[in-house]
């Protein structure tokens, strides 16, 4: 199997910025393996990682793929093929990346700070915050309330590589407000309600 090329790992986007650490955020559709491992290890901590945690385990990148590139969900050794390891290494080795944001799992809306080597993983986290969004559209599965994760970026907070984020729901409510900073995972927050809406036909 050909080795995947990770455009992110090459760092060409840093050139021309005086080689200083640039605060940044990353966005993908499907969560990385560290998300599934954090969920399994930490469990449900609604006052430290507020959000809905209804989809266990996380549907993640490389799910159902064998290491040799074959898709075979029925083989236990192919439940996770490791094809996102290069991307995780690039994220964990890039200074200034404050958060990775994704969706895909409609029933998960939490964030978690990945700052250790997790059991069964070959990549050690560097303090990047991993965050789900909120179910946004009227298609797809589930009856979780629709909304959006909003990310508030200010110059003052960027000096400390910190951003604020919360969910703005279709009901008008704001839930899950947290500061993604050096003490996230240890700071206490109100739990997020698990609200649902009727599916429109």
From TrEMBL:
Example of a GO cellular component annotation carried by this entry: cytoplasm
InterPro entries to which the protein is assigned, alphabetical: Metallo-depent_PP-like
SUPFAM superfamilies: Metallo-dependent phosphatases
MF-aspect GO terms: hydrolase activity, acting on ester bonds
Highest taxon listed in the record's lineage: Eukaryota
Name under which the protein is recorded: Metallophosphoesterase
Species in which this protein is naturally found: Tolypocladium paradoxum
């Amino acid at each position: 199997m050909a080795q995947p090329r990770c455009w992110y790992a090459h760092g060409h986007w840093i050139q021309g910025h005086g080689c200083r650490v640039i605060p940044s955020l990353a966005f993908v559709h499907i969560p990385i393996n560290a998300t599934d491992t954090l969920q399994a290890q930490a469990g449900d901590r609604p006052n430290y990682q507020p959000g809905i945690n209804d989809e266990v385990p996380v549907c993640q990148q490389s799910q159902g793929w064998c290491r040799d590139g074959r898709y075979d969900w029925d083989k236990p050794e192919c439940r996770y093929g490791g094809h996102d390891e290069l991307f995780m290494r690039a994220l964990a080795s890039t200074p200034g990346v404050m958060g990775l944001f994704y969706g895909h799992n409609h029933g998960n809306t939490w964030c978690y700070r990945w700052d250790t080597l997790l059991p069964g993983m070959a990549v050690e986290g560097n303090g990047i915050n991993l965050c789900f969004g909120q179910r946004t559209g009227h298609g797809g599965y589930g009856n979780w309330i629709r909304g959006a994760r909003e990310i508030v970026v200010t110059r003052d907070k960027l000096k400390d590589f910190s951003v604020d984020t919360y969910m703005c729901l279709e009901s008008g409510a704001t839930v899950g407000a947290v500061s993604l900073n050096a003490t996230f995972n240890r700071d206490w927050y109100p739990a997020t309600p698990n609200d649902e809406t009727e599916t429109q036909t």
